[in-house]
Specification:
The longest helix has about 40 residues. It contains twelve helices and 31 strands. It is an alpha+beta fold and about 600 residues long. Helices cover about 25% and strands about 25% of the residues. Strand 21 and strand 22 form a beta hairpin. The chain has three domains: about 280 residues, Beta-lactamase (3-Layer(aba) Sandwich); about 100 residues, Beta Barrel (Lipocalin); about 100 residues, Lipocalin.
């Protein structure tokens, strides 16, 4: 008996020792993983810096939560997993869910004409279905861009009525509904209006009752009152230009639908898990919200209803980013792995999409296809060759899509090519952003930091034709672009374009004037002639083609129109998500 007891005790001791070793090894692995994650956010842990909240979800549980940086710089309050952030366009999936729940209740159909519920919307000669709003194929001009062009300051208080007024003043669409995809916040704002008119409840109320409360998302809400107080809210900041420090950057807009959800990384896990449990909506709802849109041509989009459906390094993903004021957000899901990353930030220069993908790289390393590693500037890498400055310079210039008129500028920066991305349907890209490119060959380049499969392929011209650049991987920019010769108008030619130009659709007048030999946008005026404080930057107009100019640092392109006498009579304006705005020349301004 004593012998067997000793053997049992010895075996138990061995098992205990093995268990202790296994636990220690697991602890070391976990520590190594967390250290790698901390390194991703190391740049946000400097004293006085805003930053991000992070959560990693796996198999229905939160396996890591972290806070990096300050939620409130003035009070030195740190970001925690309980900090509440404005998630910008990441809110769109909740708006889409609210519409689909109303459809499930029989109160509407996604195939209904939008004018059934919003009759004040002009009749453009085409039916715009609710489904067009949900997948950005409506052709409606983006109302946030319209407000920017109208000189409305993001610091101003704006309401549903303000947004409706500027939307319903528009006399044309960007394109026929269903013929193209172009990200438009107008569609999702109108969905909030439809929710209220169909249900008798605001989107804030309906989502709270049908989504947030059932899922136990007790720290989540649509913020539709700029005076509302929210516990643990992180303030948002922008870096000062060419200076150290930050400025406050929060919005006082009260309209919802396209954004305005405030939440935490912990609450988002409950919503994320609903995509597996179907607690809210059920399986049919989950299938519908993730069903990818289609154009009239049959082309399948990578956008569903408030969600991007994509692949990343060989794995299926469902995601959406967000950006509003100084807030940035990303919710990235790998459904086949039951794994997700939520990253919410309060600094305007943050790239939470990139950081979320970097975190996924750490946890899913064994499942992901090998990543192409970026080389140091001027150095060779396994992914592509080292190119000389002369080789890069030969590819620079201005390229134009002859079908759409879209202009992309290619320049050099830090011994690399850089592309100026004027606008994009994906919320995580910023207007006016210049993106450094990495060479995969002497003619093929990819973004150095954006976690998306965009390629820029340069093609030499033939028979005297201009060289070309082909962009693939993102619906809005996919095209063959032709290099165009630089246009250098004389001072007299520039001066002939100076003057006041009015838009009835925007209720604003643009004043162009010659300043130190350059044509410049010098003021945006309201109908009474007073200067508006917000809007696009008052910058120089850069010539692209004859009578075509870009407002420097913006996605705005002006194309001047002339009469039979060749005098300038006005211009049409394109600004990414808003196209074809007509401005008419007025009498010369008083000197």
């Amino acid at each position: 008996m004593r012998t067997w007891t000793k053997v049992w005790i010895s075996a138990a001791a061995c098992a205990l020792g093995a268990g202790t070793l296994a636990a220690a090894e697991a602890g070391r692995a976990q520590h190594k993983t967390e250290a790698a994650v901390d390194e991703v956010f190391a740049d946000y842990t400097k004293a006085g810096s805003p930053g991000c909240a992070l959560a990693v979800y796996r198999d229905g549980k939160i396996i890591l939560t972290k806070g990096y940086g300050l939620a409130n710089i003035e009070e030195h309050v740190p970001i925690t997993p309980q900090s509440v952030f404005d998630i910008g366009s990441t809110s769109k999936q909740f708006t889409a869910a609210s519409i689909l729940l109303l459809e499930k209740q029989g109160k509407l159909s996604v195939n209904d004409d939008v004018r059934k519920y919003v009759p004040e919307l002009p009749n453009y000669g085409h039916k715009i279905a609710i489904l067009n709003l949900l997948n950005h194929t409506s052709g409606l001009r983006d109302y946030l861009t319209l407000m920017d062009l109208a000189g409305i300051n993001i610091d101003s208080v704006t309401t549903d009525e303000d947004a409706l007024q500027i939307i319903t003043r528009q006399k044309a669409l960007n394109f026929a509904p269903g013929s193209e995809f172009l990200y438009s916040n107008t569609g999702f704002f109108l969905l909030s209006v439809i929710v209220k008119r169909v249900s008798g409840k605001t989107l804030r109320e309906l989502a709270a009752e049908n989504i947030f409360a059932p899922l136990g998302m007790t720290h989540t809400q649509y913020r539709d009152d700029h005076t509302a107080l929210i516990s643990n809210r992180a303030l948002a900041y922008d870096p000062k230009e060419n200076k150290s420090g930050y400025t406050l950057s929060v919005s006082y807009f009260e309209q919802t639908g396209d954004g305005a959800v405030h939440t935490t990384v912990e609450d988002l896990q409950k919503w994320d898990e609903n995509f597996y449990s179907g607690q809210v909506g059920g399986n049919e709802f989950l299938a519908e919200i993730q069903q990818q849109g289609k154009l009239n041509s049959g082309t399948v989009l990578d956008y569903a209803k408030g969600l991007f459906i994509d692949d990343y390094r060989g794995l299926h993903t469902v995601s959406h980013g967000g950006a509003w004021g100084g807030y940035r957000a990303e919710l990235l899901r790998f459904p086949d792995q039951h794994f997700s990353v939520a990253c919410l930030c309060n600094r305007g220069d943050a790239n939470p999409s990139k950081k979320a993908h970097d975190v996924a790289d750490i946890y899913l390393a064994s499942l992901l296809k090998p990543a192409e590693k970026a080389a140091a500037p001027g150095a060779a890498s396994a992914a592509g060759p080292a190119l000389s400055d002369a080789q890069l310079q030969a590819l620079t210039g201005t390229y134009r899509d002859p079908a759409k008129g879209t202009v992309v500028r290619i320049s050099t920066r830090n011994h690399r090519l850089a592309a100026e991305i004027l606008d994009s349907p994906r919320a995580q890209y910023q207007i006016g952003q210049r993106v450094e490119l990495r060479a995969r060959s002497a003619t093929e380049f990819v973004p150095a930091s954006l976690p998306v499969d965009i390629k820029l392929i340069f093609e030499p011209g033939s028979n005297g034709s201009p060289k070309k650049m082909r962009i693939t991987g993102i619906d809005e920019l996919n095209a063959v672009y032709e290099a165009i010769a630089d246009y250098a108008p004389s001072a007299a030619e520039l001066g002939a374009c100076a003057g006041d130009y009015a838009s009835g659709e925007l209720g604003v007048t643009f004043r162009l004037a010659m300043v130190e030999g350059k044509l410049k946008l010098v003021a945006m005026l309201d109908p009474a002639g007073f200067r508006r404080s917000g809007g696009i930057p008052l910058n120089e107009l850069l010539p692209a083609l004859v009578d075509e100019f870009e407002v420097s640092g913006t996605p705005v392109t002006l194309r001047f129109t002339r009469n039979a006498e060749h005098s300038v009579t006005g211009f049409t304006l394109d600004a990414g998500r808003t196209k074809g705005m007509i401005f008419t020349r007025r009498a010369s301004p008083e000197k």
